[in-house]
């Protein structure tokens, strides 16, 4: 009776990293499933209420921090990262400093990354299967309760910076993360060490002071949360600091010294669509709901919804220099069916009137 030889897991781990690069990932690493310290950090964050309306962050209990509870039998996690900054994009600071333009977080300018990365992870799994036969796995890209940054850190892909974003020593922080949970007993990589030192540029630059201390983010103040996750009214005291940021915010990454090492993406699907890397606010505010749905098809921007899109742009127009074009654009939406839109338009018109009087 013959027994099947065990795979050479060290050689397989090396192959997995090579295959990942061939599939368009910048890097891959392998970690175990122990996340006790991160579980406590998450619990403290939730207990402090910093997650705001993101109730899904607490809905799944310990499955987020215990991979083998989420996917029974998981022994290792293969983490991958994929660069997203498109070459030739309008310079971020130039757009932020142009109060008549709308700033969209650079990750959201092109195609939504979820499906693209999940397909690549599936191909990676198929290559593994082709090498060793059937094995247990499940692919995740923001699609389940996963502590992706902690897992990526443990896999050696980077450290979690003071702004709570993962930073890679050779690649900065402009990248997406994805995971393959697997039952394969692969050798694990060394966790990445931290290299923020005494730097606190990300904390100091945050427009709404959402980073309340090193590694402590109050999402309720974060512009990414306010423009994407929050479905109701944006707190008035946070509207002016939002400036012209209409979907997400990159300031804490743009100021990070490690992003001088960031790499442009080679993925054409991440190229900006509809000139969203620097389009004028008045133009974007004029999109009908049908135009919004058509132009954001397959994009992360769709997540905010048309009502949220108008709400966010109304705030940015309220922060724009006074002009007839801005006032006319706002006035056209003053009687919008959405109470949320009407409220933010009214606020913006008041801001315009006050700036004109001054």
TrEMBL record:
PROSITE patterns to which the protein is assigned, alphabetical: 4FE4S_FER_1 (PS00198), 4FE4S_FER_2 (PS51379)
Give the top-rank taxon of the lineage listed in the UniProt record for this protein: Bacteria
User: What are its cofactors?
Assistant: [4Fe-4S] cluster; cob(II)alamin
Active-site residues are 142
Spell out the molecular function terms from Gene Ontology.
4 iron, 4 sulfur cluster binding; cobalamin binding; epoxyqueuosine reductase activity; metal ion binding
Which residues belong to any copy of the 4Fe-4S ferredoxin-type domain? 184-216
GO:BP terms for this protein?
tRNA queuosine(34) biosynthetic process
Pathway stated in the Swiss-Prot or TrEMBL entry: tRNA modification; tRNA-queuosine biosynthesis
Instruction: Give, as one word, the top-level EC class.
Output: oxidoreductase
* Cofactor comment: Binds 2 [4Fe-4S] clusters per monomer.
Q: Which reaction is this enzyme known to catalyze? A: epoxyqueuosine(34) in tRNA + AH2 = queuosine(34) in tRNA + A + H2O
What does the entry list as the binding residues for [4Fe-4S] cluster 1? 196, 199, 202, 256
Q: Where does cob(II)alamin bind?
A: 64, 142, 166, 177, 224, 249-250
The entry marks the following residues as binding tRNA, namely: 231
Q: Where does [4Fe-4S] cluster 2 bind?
A: 206, 222, 249, 252
User: Which key words are in the record?
Assistant: 4Fe-4S, Cobalamin, Cobalt, Cytoplasm, Iron, Iron-sulfur, Metal-binding, Oxidoreductase, Queuosine biosynthesis, tRNA processing
| Protein's cellular compartments | Cytoplasm
**Similarity comment:** Belongs to the QueG family.
> What does the annotation say about its assembly with partners?
Monomer.
Q: What does this protein do?
A: Catalyzes the conversion of epoxyqueuosine (oQ) to queuosine (Q), which is a hypermodified base found in the wobble positions of tRNA(Asp), tRNA(Asn), tRNA(His) and tRNA(Tyr).
Q: What is this protein called?
A: Epoxyqueuosine reductase
